[in-house]
Structures are given as structure tokens and as C-alpha cells.
Amino acid sequence: MKNTKVFLTKSKIGSIKIKELTLHVAFDEKIVTCRVVTKTNIKNFTIRINSLGEVIVNNPYYPISKVEAILNEKARWIVEKTAFVKQRKSIQTLLCEEGKILYLGEKISLHVKSDLDTFYKEHTKSLVEKIVEEQSFIMGVKPTAIRYRKAKKRWGSCSGKNELSFNISLCQLPLNCITYIVIHELAHIKHKHHKKTFWQFVLEHMPEYKMCEKTLKQFTPTLS
User: Fold this and answer.
1) How far is Cα 192 from Cα 146, in angstroms, rounded to an integer?
2) Which of 87, 120, 152 is the last residue of a domain?
3) Which residue range forms the structural domain that includes residue 52?
């Protein structure tokens, strides 16, 4: 591909079973760093760009030449997708530049005396608790606890003890996306993985979940 190249920088090797190295993907004079993690328990080769614009490559012990070839093929997508993720404005940036915040997927003016964290935590808690109560009854599962935290990368999680944790910025999202995240984490009470049975359970309770996942890519979990 024209204007595309991949070159290896210093590699950092951990244990025998886990290897990490850094590759740089270049396309159209733009360079993106990729962290390649090679593990024995990885089945599929995946390229993931997190909410901070970091590129993580999960490698099932492919030789470096094959990894480079795949990244070469995907270089344009990696560079463009990374740029898209990094240009998304955080809520704090939006507030500073436009005097507005995001609430239920829309920009609104903030006319409250409380600080940003308090505003989002209160509104997220109010919305999530109603959705959890409704969906946990429908799905036949029940969390042992619900917590709210600030997070840079994750919207929610479910612990091994079935404790749910949600990002306090959740209420910035459209309501259907909030509902999807709640259903996703509730589903982990029954299925502690992302295998086919998990996604079938999610699909049963939210047929449009794939559309929600696409919408989520337009938002960033961090407030700052």
C-alpha cells in the first residue's frame, strides 16, 4: 500500500508465555504506535483501539513477519480510526470550549451549582438503578452490589462476586446505550465470558445491541 510501512522498535519480553513488543504503523506520513501482546492463550488475532486512542494488538503467536503484514494491510484503517478516536472531545473539553455538556446523547447547557463529577454521578445513578431493577427482573439475575466510579476506558464491569460497577459518566450516552451497557453487565452474572452463549443472552434481551456498540464509539468514557 502506498505511503504505508511498519517497522519494529525495541521489544520487551516478559515471561515465556507472554511477549510484548512495539510496532509503528505509518500511513500518509502519519505514524501510530501499536502495542503487540503475544500470549499462548489467545486464539484470534485482533486489533483494538481503546477510548484513549491506544492500539492494542492481540497476537496468537504469529511470527513477527505475519504481524507486520497484517498491520501493513490494516495501516490506513488503524491511522484513520486512531485519529477519529483522539479527536472526540471529552466532556470537560466540551464544557470549556462550548459551555455545554453531554446528557442522554445531546449537548446541553450546564445550569447547575454542583461540580461536573457530582452532576454526572447523581444522574447516572438515578438512571442506572431504574434500568437495573427492571432488567434484572426480566433477565432473571441479580447483582450483589452496584458501584459508581470514574474511569478512563470502561463504561461498566461485573466482578466475580456479581458486583456491578458503572462509570459515573454513563448518563452522557443515549438512553438505549445506557440500557445496553446495563444489560451487558447483568449478562455477565450468568455468563463470565464473551463466548457465543453470552452474546445470545444479550441478543435475547436487546436485539439492537450491535447498533448501540457502534454508537458508543462516538463517545469517550472519561470526563476529563
Assistant:
1) 17
2) 87
3) 4-87
In a domain, 72, yes or no: yes
Ramachandran region of residue 162, left (φ > 0), alpha (ψ -120 to 50) or beta?
A: left
Domain-embedded: residue 79: yes
pLDDT at site 194:
93
> How far apart (Å, rounded) are the C-alpha atoms in residues 161 and 118?
27
Give the pLDDT confidence of 11-63 residue by residue, as tens digits: 444 444 678 888 888 888 888 999 998 877 778 899 988 767 789 999 888 88
95 within some domain:
no
Q: Is the entire prediction scored with pTM above 0.70? A: no
Using alpha carbons, list the distances in angstroms from residue 177 to 44, 76, 97: 27, 29, 26
CB 113 within 8 A of CB 161: no
Which residue, 180, 182, 188, 165, is CA-closest to 214?
180
Q: What type of residue sits at position 2?
A: K
